[in-house]
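Re: weekly structure request thread

Next one in the queue (201 aa):
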Amino acid sequence: SMKKIMPLMPFIIFILLGIVFYLSIGRDPTLVANNLVGKDFPDFQLESLAFEDQESRPYSLQGLQRALPEGQPWILNVWGSWCPQCYVEHPFITALSDAGVALVGMNYKDETAKGQGFLKKMGNPYQIILQDMEGSLGLDLGVSGAPETYLVSPQGEILARHAGVLDKAVWDQKFAKLWQDNNGHQLFSRQSEATEEQGAE
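Done, posted below.
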């Protein structure tokens, strides 16, 4: 039986190597990122992206948290003008902003003018946009590309992460319960409740 297997050995080794390679693809940044869930958001020093009436200014983690609504969780959304999926995702990010979510954009490995062009075309849902041109914060977060989204607690703990397009289904699956637990109310609840809230305003 060994004689029968021997001619197949190169093929078997090739298959095994293929499996190993497949399992290791994109492993490193993703592992870093997934290990960060439950840990504190890393500190950073980045300039913000100047857009419309917002001037560019330096931010650290502390400065960022001071600029966001107190006692509320917030979302970091990693995007770039070079990223096709970011255009697909943007309407849902805008819907989150319209629903009152504190949103921080991270313009990742992009040129200032191109980032500004994206926002001119698509609209700006972000309260603050950090410019990570070198990818330094991205490296600390284990960002493997764009789009990626992080939910951060009011205390600065990373509660959840999603690599890829964020939409309603992903929100419901990964973010909704954590958002509610950290904010006291539900987002995008049943349509009737949303209508009642509008009536009450």
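DSSP finds nine helices and seven strands in the chain. The two ends are 78 Å apart (CA to CA).
Next request, please.
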